Amino acid sequence: MTKQFKDRFSNHASEYRLYRPLYPEALFNHLASLAPTREAAWDCATGNGQSATCLARLFKQVYATDASSKQITHAIQKPNIDYSVSPAHRTALPDHSIDLITVAQAIHWFDNEPFYREVRRVIKKGGVIAAWAYHLPVIDPEIDRIIQRLYSEILGPFWEKEISHVASGYRDLYFPFKTLQSPVFTMKTNWNLYGLIGYLQTWSALEPYRKRYGNSPVERIVPDLLAVWETPSSSKQVFWPIILKTGTSRQAC
User: Fold this and answer.
1) Domain count within the chain
2) Enclosing H/E stretch for 133
3) pTM of the model as a whole
4) Phi, psi of 210 (to 5 degrees)
5) Does some domain include residue 210?
6) Which of 73, 126, 130, 175 is deepest in the core (most CB within 10 A)?
7) Which domain holds residue 74?
8) 200: left (phi > 0), else alpha (psi -120 to 50), else beta?
């Protein structure tokens, strides 16, 4: 029996598209270089299609699935991307048809074993699966401490247990494939204070907080952010180290 899908992001799908940072092109170039061919990729839990659009530059056909119809509605369209609504563990993809499977910022939410059965069904011999995530942004020590307070002190009771996998760098995430070594990748962007606040408003713990208290917890840290940001419209560099697990269907355990 699989876990019931808990939709954590549909209520702010448009904000997710606007404020979530972009993954580096170098990540996709690396993953494509590992695939046996560049015929077909599957971006599972595609959300707004951010990863799918990058894969579309490198693969003849991209299949992008998500359990949320609202996320698919806001997805970025490309001629060679086929979007569909389906859970991670059950797709209409043909057997042994996929060269590369990607899961961005989502595998920790999955019922792993049913998903991995689907991976084994659809992946080609020698195909590659890559799952990645990112945790808290890195800006400067003062701002980072304020964001850490929002994450730990204010929202601590409202995070679901699966977030612990991200906090630990996927160290204990069940991943039954032959591991491949990969370089270290980092997401980078330039944001003013309003961009950072928009991003913080997409965190999954905000919805249960709002349901209990009727307001946004981000409002509690805005005065502190204003005090250290100098001018709210000025931009700062923001970094997220990427947590990446990459494996191959060869000698899967």
Assistant:
1) 1
2) strand 123-134
3) 0.88
4) -60, -40
5) no
6) 130
7) 10-136+160-187+240-248
8) alpha
Q: Report the amino acid identity of residue 237.
A: Q
146 within some domain: no
The DSSP annotation for 159-222 comes to S-TTHHHHHTTTTT----SEE------EEEEEE-HHHHHHHHTT-TTHHHHHHHHSS-GGGGTH
Q: Is residue 81 assigned to a domain?
A: yes
User: Does 18 map to a domain?
Assistant: yes
- Least Cα distance to 105 among 11, 249, 242 occurs for 242
Query: What is the spatial distance between Cα 133 and Cα 167, in angstroms, rounded to a whole number?
Result: 10
CATH number of the domain to which 19 belongs: 3.40.50.150
Element (DSSP H or E) covering residue 246: strand 236-248
